[in-house]
Each structure stands twice: as structure tokens, then as C-alpha cells.
Amino acid sequence: MVVILKKNAPAEQVEQFQSWLAEHYQLEIHESIGQNCTLLGLVGDTTRVDIDLLQAMEIVENVRRIGEPYKFVNRKMHPQDTVVDCGGVPIGGGHFTIVAGPCSVESEEQILYVAQRVKAAGAGLLRGGAFKPRTSPYAFQGLRGEGIRLLLEAKKATGLPIVTEIMDLSQLPLFADVDVIQVGARNMQNFELLKELGHCKKPILLKRGLANTLQELLMSAEYILAGGNEQVILCERGLRTFETATRNTLDLSCVPLIHELSHLPVMVDPSHATGHARLVEPMALAAAAGGADALMIEVHNDPTHAVSDGAQSLTPDAFDLVAKKVFAVYDCAKNLK
Amino acid sequence: MVVILKKNAPAEQVEQFQSWLAEHYQLEIHESIGQNCTLLGLVGDTTRVDIDLLQAMEIVENVRRIGEPYKFVNRKMHPQDTVVDCGGVPIGGGHFTIVAGPCSVESEEQILYVAQRVKAAGAGLLRGGAFKPRTSPYAFQGLRGEGIRLLLEAKKATGLPIVTEIMDLSQLPLFADVDVIQVGARNMQNFELLKELGHCKKPILLKRGLANTLQELLMSAEYILAGGNEQVILCERGLRTFETATRNTLDLSCVPLIHELSHLPVMVDPSHATGHARLVEPMALAAAAGGADALMIEVHNDPTHAVSDGAQSLTPDAFDLVAKKVFAVYDCAKNLK
Amino acid sequence: MVVILKKNAPAEQVEQFQSWLAEHYQLEIHESIGQNCTLLGLVGDTTRVDIDLLQAMEIVENVRRIGEPYKFVNRKMHPQDTVVDCGGVPIGGGHFTIVAGPCSVESEEQILYVAQRVKAAGAGLLRGGAFKPRTSPYAFQGLRGEGIRLLLEAKKATGLPIVTEIMDLSQLPLFADVDVIQVGARNMQNFELLKELGHCKKPILLKRGLANTLQELLMSAEYILAGGNEQVILCERGLRTFETATRNTLDLSCVPLIHELSHLPVMVDPSHATGHARLVEPMALAAAAGGADALMIEVHNDPTHAVSDGAQSLTPDAFDLVAKKVFAVYDCAKNLK
Amino acid sequence: MVVILKKNAPAEQVEQFQSWLAEHYQLEIHESIGQNCTLLGLVGDTTRVDIDLLQAMEIVENVRRIGEPYKFVNRKMHPQDTVVDCGGVPIGGGHFTIVAGPCSVESEEQILYVAQRVKAAGAGLLRGGAFKPRTSPYAFQGLRGEGIRLLLEAKKATGLPIVTEIMDLSQLPLFADVDVIQVGARNMQNFELLKELGHCKKPILLKRGLANTLQELLMSAEYILAGGNEQVILCERGLRTFETATRNTLDLSCVPLIHELSHLPVMVDPSHATGHARLVEPMALAAAAGGADALMIEVHNDPTHAVSDGAQSLTPDAFDLVAKKVFAVYDCAKNLK
User: Fold this and answer.
1) In chain A, which end has fewer C-beta atoms inside a 10 angstrom radius, N or C?
2) Are residues B54 and B135 in the same domain?
3) Nearest to D169 among C170, C304, C311 (CB)
4) What is the pLDDT of residue B35?
């Protein structure tokens, strides 16, 4: 971190400031006096330094962070790719898979049927929402505990590990047999939840918030890793922008960027990102070619009668075809490397 | 709600679709056959209709919502302004006040001093963070339960009702003596929390998320009102945009818009919105002139040593001046009406 | 277009409004009287109807557009793909190519060398900036007329058709021998320029503005087609969002969406979109897999000494590899279809 | 500007880099060697340094700009407020005015009537569009030369100086008698136009682009001032964000921020920013209280029959009231300072 002091900063205040910095944050300070300004290089663990606070000080002209504000998720600290073990299915470090299933678990018949179909098409994990965050209090809120029970039935029947979303800390006991716990986009900065999941022994699928930067996503993952849980998968599912032709704007460039900055695997969810079933295939192929470690795709037995997100779900037949193409493009791109 | 059907939609499917709509959502359907398309007018409570689902159906060309998807927060259902009683201090319906205090409660001495100063300057409520949502796991996370205890001490000493933020449902018992419970921007769509607060008898201060539309804010308030709690204040604190010169972009036009759409009072928080102490005064004056029912302003005894958000806090002396000007401008604008 | 009238709209005003609509816009009006509101279906060419104006009228509750506001770019009017002939190289309708070259033309030696290298790597067209839009008046503004002369030299030497950007109408005479005229993102809504290019017989490469919707992009293309020039290629080069980790956010989902809405070919420019040379390869592969008809990639002989956009340029050696992979992934994805 | 070099940057390359920097940009270099990295402080005119280029170099870890990239618009170079003389009406430095008139000039009768009414209400300048940038090629494009003639008639009749928009350089000769030339939001980065207006002797009203940062706005003004024309007024008219309840999101906090960074006056246009006539009053009052030097407000004799932007125009009667309130709030806020 570099602090640029104002030209006319009184020597006494500068000295006092340096002592405070050194002591308060346990840092080493390197002073460099130029013609127009004095630079202070802050060496040590600057993750705790509050940039806004320094910038508000009278003698400070400007502050610039050089290093990243995260440690455990940083590739510099952990150069090799993390491979997350999702109930026996690995994700990351060259292991690619597709997570598929309906937005909401609706009935035993539905989830069993979809599970069998997505397994047959090559999916590695089954997804299905039991607790559903819905903008409207009048929309279907999920089968909740019963939904998890049905997912476990589907797991028993097909052998597919399951992924499902937690909405509140109080629901955690119900997730004992779930293979991967999903933290939804709206909860990406639910810090109390993240802290608790840091003490949990299960893989966490952390979805990026609609308006969160990559750095904020990595900081939220840092909450989990700092608690001791290193099994985290990051998931891009679209940003909120001014464009209304798609539900969100899929930020695919975050995939190679996260791979640079962190060792954690990255999943892409083209269903939620675009909101349109007919855009899922091209964006799934793009993600597979662009380096994603996994895809999450919504599949519903009867999209026009789905109780949530029907518009973006594929039929099992359509998914068969998309999965086949995705694996082919992923292999093609991988073999070129 | 209007559903536009495709030109060549088979009559049989159209009939089936109409029956399904009527039954599934308990609606009355008005058909209007034009040269190029058939329009269906849906009459009744359309708040539960899933537009995305309808749009995904093969015979549907397009769907347009006409009414609003919320009821209890809708001014059409409740024409007169709601006045929220915040521990004896009214907000809304012509009652204006300033909520002031530090971002974080840091010590008894600090919170008592600030409480006395903001009271003397004319503030109606005291704010102070006990549970602090922080992007970094390494940043100060608040005094938590102890913070609430100190706020109650300050309340006892000054008589100012207190506002403080809840971060998780499990903290609710600690809020028994708090006057107004704040739901932070990151929790605006924490629906489990909102549902629970709907059963609570206290005023709720609901902050707009950084990337949430006005309609989503109203839908989140609807969760609380639908649960039976009508004491809700909405708070604008800036949107996340491409502009980086300010922390966020304050969306002041939401104030008159919310007043049109809803009966709930609107607070503006220029401190969080701008992130710069020196922008607080002009934006506070703008909000007061533009129709806000209340302001929330950060005041800290010693901003350069604040443990959080020091850069945007006013000193008590600066707040004296800002408060004086704010009341003068508010009165001037009000008397013109 | 559907106009929803207010419940209590006086019959006389409704009648007057209908006559005005019919006459002013030459439309047929279908009235449908429901219990709660009256719907007017507007049939005919509604592209000229000013929605904002209708919405401002007292008796109007709401207005919804059903059709698209463009004609000539609409796939409904022109179902088969347009193939644009770029100086002998086709783009669109299954013809894929890469446009490559430096951000700015800097010298004869530079442009000749780069042209030879990108041709050898398989590029179909040469790009190079002669007129450069730069945020700062102190930055390099391009070689201007001399730059175009050098591009023509490179064309003569290699046979590659050339693409270069026009910044102002007054420069048009200098573009007589240019194969494809590029309209930059900042000029996407320079309507006087678009009108003039509509009368021109050359292919136009129209880049999407940083903050323009897909619909606005199509409307700008409509200006050109309405003038009589149907040779238009649309180019996605990233949106301006809150994310600062990349220069812009590449909106790849616009590729399949434009293919649905329009018959015009779509190019993707991963260099400008990401702003980082090391993100060009993954995003180029993603675009090729996701259905783009062409790519634009910046290649510079010596990126660290480029006078503009060096940070995002590939070296010729790096481009060799990227081009090879792009063609392989494109072929793989195409053969799956 | 500070350049942070990588830990292991070879001494020889560092030396070479320093020589190149010093020579290429004519800068003085201050080296500061720390434990983890080497900092280079760049002293001199760094406005021309290409940050992206430096960042792409192998030995560079990071680059941070400290100073602003503009000179002539910088308040540091010109501490006192610029007062722009708009045909006899001053704007800036404590001189406040309202610019009012219709979006488009439609007829002699219309513009004369509106001019008389806004003058009577206290407006200082008359606005009216002759050349109209419209998203659709099928929308009204303005009366063009004839529109300017009618504005000059209105000026003769009322004495109000006139403001109107230029869309292309070729139109400049028609602006000989216009008092203030407006550059619209879509042309904010039409650099060829800005350069030419730098050589012109008339005040320029430069509107901020929908997706342009404050810094880009100041850089565009720098183009004009660098050419020798210091009579520039900046105008905020809303940003493009994800919020669709208003046409754009008015960024009022840019007013005090520009006043800090620059000496140029700032106008606010609540009509275009909000797009709704009924939001004009509260946002006009907010702008007046928040420090704007001028307002631009659309007034039309018959908004429901306006050929453009009727939805956001006030009637002359409504404007009478708004103007009265605006002047009262402006005076109240000013007298408090």
C-alpha cells in the first residue's frame, strides 16, 4: 500500500502519522521524499488497513492499495488449483462437470424423473431448490424441509450428489446430508452465514451477487476459508446492468480472471444469467470454451408448468443435446491447451 | 395484466390456456381478437402471476403487467401517508427528523458524547452500529451485544430513541429494547429475515440495496407489511453505478417516486451514498428540499480514528451547522407547498 | 402496441384520443372494454408512435409496445442471414473470419509487418486506427490521412481488405478506398453520420456503445439500412458496468439474441471489451463457441511500446496461437449444430 | 504517478525502464527501494502517460495516478470560479439562472409563446431544439436551420439569449447568432467536434454522457479549454443505471464534486434526467439546494401534443410555480452559506 502525503504536510504530523500506522496496523513504513510529495510505502499485512479512513486524514493526498485484500483465496498463497470434492465428484483442476436440475423441487415424481434424465445425459450433480428466495411474498417459497427430503430420495435413486440453497443460518441442521450447500446471490454478503459456513465441513457453492465485484466475491469466499473451510466453488450468474434484453448480463471474463487471482474453481450458470432457455446453449458452450470448471443448468420436466423460473429451464430432451455439445466443446478447447 | 397471443395460436390451445389461467390464478379473462393478434386482459389479483412463465409458453407473444405487484405498500390501497412512531418521534406525513450518530458504537464514552452532541444539534434519533456487515473478514465486526447495551445507556442519558442494524434472525432477542430495527442494504432481500420482522411490533428501517430497483424495495417492504407490521420506513443510500468518484450514486428522484407509489415514509442517507464527509451537506440539503421525510447522517467524535467509515463521518461541530441548514431548507421548501 | 386507459376516463376524451391516434399515426384502433380498464390495440406501423408522449396523457394508465420499433434490420422482414462482402471476404451466414491488427497505425514498417503476420495466422481482414478517439486531448490522436495511406500500402502488399474508423463526416472522402468503414462505440448514436453512411455503398462495422442497449444498437443500424445500405456488421465490445477488474464487461449473450432479432452478422471484440491481453484468448474462444460471425483482435508488433491500447494487444506470436485455437473451437461448435 | 515494480524485476530492465520513462514523457523519476517492491515516483506533467501501457509491462506490478489528468479545467490551476457570459446573462460564481423552453422548436407561434411565458416566470435563457438526436430514424428530427431562425425571432421578441444543440461540425455556420452552443450527451466524446468548439468564441454547454464518469466529462471540457475557449458550462442530466422507474438516474452529488475539482459552472437538467414532468419540481428544488449554478427545464405550451419529450415537459403555468419555488430555495440555501 502506498500513502501519498500532501505537499505541505507538517513534519510533526507526518511523523505522528507514521508512528500511528506502524503501531495500529503493525506495519513497516518506507518513506520516500520527492519534490512534490512524500510517499509512504506500507509493508506487511495491509489487509486490515481501512483505505477510506486514511484518505480522510488531512495530511493525506491519496492512498493506493497494491496487494490484494485477501489471503486464503489468493493464488499467490496457494499456487495449485483447488479441487473441490462434491460428494465424490471433483470440480476444479481440470475436472469439469455439469450440475443440473429444476429451479424448485416440486414433487417426488418430478425430481426423480429429472434426476434420472440429467444423470443419463452426463450431469455430475443434481440441483434443486428447497428454500426459494422470491422477490414477491406471494410467489412460491419452496417445499423447504420436504424439498430436501425429496432431493435425498433422488440421490438415493440415482447416486447423484445434491446441491441445494440455504437461505438462513437456522436452516443449517436440515443440510446434514446435503453434498454441497449453495449460498445464493442475494446472500453473498450475508456475513453471519458465511462465518458459520466457514466452520462447516461441506463444500460451499458461493454465487456472485448481481452487483458485486470480483473482489467482493473473493472477500466473501475469504470469510469461509478464514473459518477453516477450503472447499469453496465460486459461481458467476450474471450482473445487473442497464441492458434489459436478458435478465442479467453474464460476465464470462470473470472466469479467466478468477483463475488468475485465486485457486478456487469457477462455475457458470447460464440459465439464471440469461433468463431465457434458448440462450442457455450458446452461453453454456461459450463458458465451456472460455475455461469454466463447471456449469449449472436448469432442467425441468415441464418448463411451462414450473412453479418458478420456467422460462429459463430446458426440457430433458433439450438438455441431452446441450450436454453433449458442451462436453465436446470443453474437450476441444482443453486439448488445444 | 395483458397477454398477447401469437397470430397463429391454435384455437384449442388458446382455450386451454385461458382455462388454466382462470383456474390456476383465480382470474377473470377478457379476450379481444384483433387482426394481428389476440389480447387477453387478466382481471383480478395478478400479484401472483409469474410473467416469465407465461412468456415462455409457445402460444404467447408477450406479457405486460399493468398494475403493481404489491398491495399493502401501495398508495392506491392506503391513500394517506403512514406516520411511523419511532419511540415517540414521528416520521412521515409532514414529520421530518434527522437520525444521527456514529457508524459503529466503539465505547461508552464515545456513544454518550456523540448522543449528547447530536441531540443538542436537533437530531431526533440516535443511530450506531453494533453488528457491522464488513466486506473483509479482517475488518472490525462491531461490539455486537455490548454495542446494543451502550446504545441503551446513551438512550437513557439523552432520551433519544435508538436505531441499530440487525444482521441475522438469531440476533433478534437482543433487539427487545431497540426503538427502530434497521435492515441493511445487503439484507434487503433476506426474505427469511423480512418475514420474521413482519411479525414484530417495532418500526423497521429498510435500506435499499445497492443494486435493487424501487419496485424490489417496495416488494421487500411488502414482505413486512404482509406479515402484519405496517411500521416501515424506506431508506435510499445510493446505487452502485459505473461512477467511481463517489462511493455510490445517490438516487434522490426515488423520494418523490416512492411518495407517488406508496404511503410509506422515505429517509435519505447522504453519508453512505456519497462516502465523503464534504459531500454530506450539499446532498442533505438537496434531500431536504426534494421531499425526504428524514435524513440519516453519520457523526463521529473523531472521524480520523473511527474504526469504520471515518471518511464519511461529520464531526459534531460540522453536524451542528449541517443540521441548522437542513432544518432551514426543509422549512423553506415545505412552506412553499 | 397496447394502450391501457384509466378506469374513469371520460368517454368523450377516449373517443377524441382514438381519433387523434388513428389520424396522427395512421393506425387502426381496436377497443376492448373490460371491467377495470379499457384496452386499445393499435394496429399498423407503430414504429413512429412516441410511447412517452402517450404515457403522459391524462386518460392513459399505461402503454406497452408489442412489436419491435425497427423494420429493415428485423429478421421478421428478412429471414435469411445477411452475408456482408468485406472487400471479397464474406462475414455472416456461416462465414467466419478474424479481423486483426494494431489499435493505431504508427508507421509503414509496423503496419506492413503486422499485416503479414496476421495474414499468415489466418486473419481475413486487417484493422488499424488512423483517426483515434482519445479521452484525453493530450493523447496520440492518430496519423489521420497518412494512416489510411499506410493501411492501403499494407493492403497492396498482403491482399488483406482493410477496416478503419471514421470519426467525423468530414473525413468521408478519405475513405474512398477503405473496404469497411468502422463507426466507433462513441459514435454509435451520431445520427448525422449514420444517415450519411446509409447513402454509402461500403460495408459498415457498427460498434455497440458502452452504455447502449441491444435495441438502441439495432435502431442505429436501422438508420443505415433505412438510407439504403444493407451491408452492416454489428460489433459487441463490452458494456460499462460497476465492475472495474476488466475495462468493460463483455456481453456475449447479445450474439445469439441479435441472431434472433436480426439478420445482420455479429462480430465480437474481446480486446477492447476486456482491456487485458491475457483475457483475449479465453474470451475469443468463448465468442467462437457462442456463435459470433467474426472476431476483432488487436495485434501489435511491440505491445509495450504501442502508442495506444498496448495493454490489450497480442504479439504476433501470441496471435498465431490464439487464431489456431479459435478456428478449431469454431469448427468444433459449428459441426455440432 | 507512482509505478510499483515487481519484486524480482532485473536491475538492468529497471534502469532501462527509468530512462525510457524520463525521456519518452519528459519526467523526473524518484526511486524508492523497499523490501518487497520498488516504487518509482513520476514527477512532472503526467497527463500524457498511458497507464494501461505501463501496466502491461513485465516488470511493472501496478501503476497509480495521483494527480488529475486535466490541466485547464482543474481548479488547482484556476482557483476562482469561472463566470460564463451567456449573451449577457452570467452563470457561475454565485450567478444562478434557469434555462427554459421546449425540447423541439415546432413553430413560430409555439416558440414565441413559450419564450414570453418563461421570461415572465424569471428564466434567464431560452432553450429549444432545432437539430434533434433521436434514437429512431422514424422520429421527428427537428426543424434544423429553420428552427434556429425561429429561435432568433423569439430572442428578438423577448431579449432572452438562446441555447441550442449542434449535432455535427458541418452545422456550425448556422450557429453564428446563437448565444450558447449545446453539445448533447451523445456527443460528449465527439472529439472532432470538441476540438473545433475550442476555437470558437461562444459559450459551450457540455452535457454529460449517460455513461460517462465525471473525469471523462472534465477531460471532454479539457478538449475545449485546451483549444482556447474557456467559456464552458457542464451539465448533469442523469446516468444510465439498472433502475427503470426513471428515464435516467440524476447524479446530483456530481455538483459539489465538480465544484471541488474544477472552476467551471454546473447546470442540472431534471427534465431529461427523470423523464417525468411530475418529478421535475422536487429534483429542481434539490439541485437548487445542492449548489447547482443553473437549471435547464423543459417547458412546452401543450405537452401532450409535443413532437418530442412531451412526457417530461411542464406547462407554462406549472413552470411559473416551479421557478418561484426554485428561486426561493436557492436564495434560502445561499444565504445560509
Assistant:
1) C
2) no
3) C170
4) 61
